[in-house]
């Protein structure tokens, strides 16, 4: 079983990497980008029987800094 965890900075938290990407895109001629938020994707290969609640606990304890980041868990086959 696999799980995909997407971690992003919460709205209102400064995203310097996103701003750098936006600036770079503008200097490359891509003017249609109004904003960029950069995050991370974590793919987990799980043992059979691992629950979404366990993956959520992993996020709360290690994978995301819940003070400034939000996360989304997607469980797959």
Automatic annotation (TrEMBL):
Catalytic activity: N(2)-formyl-N(1)-(5-phospho-beta-D-ribosyl)glycinamide + L-glutamine + ATP + H2O = 2-formamido-N(1)-(5-O-phospho-beta-D-ribosyl)acetamidine + L-glutamate + ADP + phosphate + H(+)
Pfam family, one: PurS
EC number: 6.3.5.3
Keywords: ATP-binding, Cytoplasm, Ligase, Nucleotide-binding, Purine biosynthesis
Function: Part of the phosphoribosylformylglycinamidine synthase complex involved in the purines biosynthetic pathway. Catalyzes the ATP-dependent conversion of formylglycinamide ribonucleotide (FGAR) and glutamine to yield formylglycinamidine ribonucleotide (FGAM) and glutamate. The FGAM synthase complex is composed of three subunits. PurQ produces an ammonia molecule by converting glutamine to glutamate. PurL transfers the ammonia molecule to FGAR to form FGAM in an ATP-dependent manner.
NCBIfam families: phosphoribosylformylglycinamidine synthase subunit PurS, PRK05974.1
Name of the protein in its database record: Phosphoribosylformylglycinamidine synthase subunit PurS
Organism: Roseicyclus mahoneyensis
């Amino acid at each position: 079983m696999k799980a995909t965890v997407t971690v992003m900075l919460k709205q209102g938290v400064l995203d310097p990497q996103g701003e750098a990407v936006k600036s770079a895109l503008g200097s490359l001629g891509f003017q249609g980008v109004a904003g960029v938020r950069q995050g991370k994707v974590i793919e987990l290969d799980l043992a059979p029987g691992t629950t979404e609640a366990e993956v959520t606990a992993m996020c709360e304890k290690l994978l995301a800094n819940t003070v400034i980041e939000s996360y989304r868990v997607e469980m797959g086959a």
